Each structure stands twice: as C-alpha cells, then as structure tokens.
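Input chain follows. Return structure tokens only.
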Amino acid sequence: MTKKTFNIMLLFLISFHSFAQKRGNSNRDSSLIVKLNDFGKCAPLTKAFYQTSGIAPMYITSAFYFVSNDKTGFSFIPVNDKVFNYDYFQKYIYPNLGRGDSVKLMVKKYFVNKKEILVATKIEKIE
C-alpha cells in the first residue's frame, strides 16, 4: 500500500468516525407548532442530557406542558433559560396561555442514548 493510499484511507476513517459521533449526539434546530396547556417547573433530566447538550443544569429550570399525542397525559419541553426570549413570552404569550392558542416553538433536538429530547430556545405568536 502506498503512502498516498494509506493517507486517503486514514482520512476516510477519521471522517466516518467523526460523522458517526456527531450524528448520534448532535443537536439540530427545528420549530414546531403546539397548543400549550401550562408553563412551570421542569421535571428532572438525566446527567447524560446535560453532558450531551452542554447546557448547565441551572439553565433548565422551566418547561412548557402540553397534552401528549396519545391524549393520556402531559408531555413537556424544557426551556433553555439562558437563550429563551422571556420578555416576549411574558408580554405576548403568557397572558393568553391555556386558551388553546397555538404557538411556534423554536427547539434544539438533542439525541441522548438514542432518545430525542427537545429544548425550547424561542417562542413566537402565530398570527
């Protein structure tokens, strides 16, 4: 095997390994439309979540609650307090919370132990 072939194979293996690592633990920005029922204290999250996301536990203190897809209970989306637009939320969303109005949540998707966890980073009113 030539040195050039070896270097190409090595580069390929490193790239493949890097891609595989990022794919399993990466975060992605996304948005979703939800009808919120409540806003309150966040349920505990795992240590693996904080390690994967890089978000300090002190910045995940609250969450949005909504009826789950199977309509048997509530699901929640934690809020990243460090980047969330609380001024806008307090002025335009919170006073009308629980009326059944839909809102647009900007979220980051984190994959922790093959499970997707959404974290809210911004909220917008739907006109």
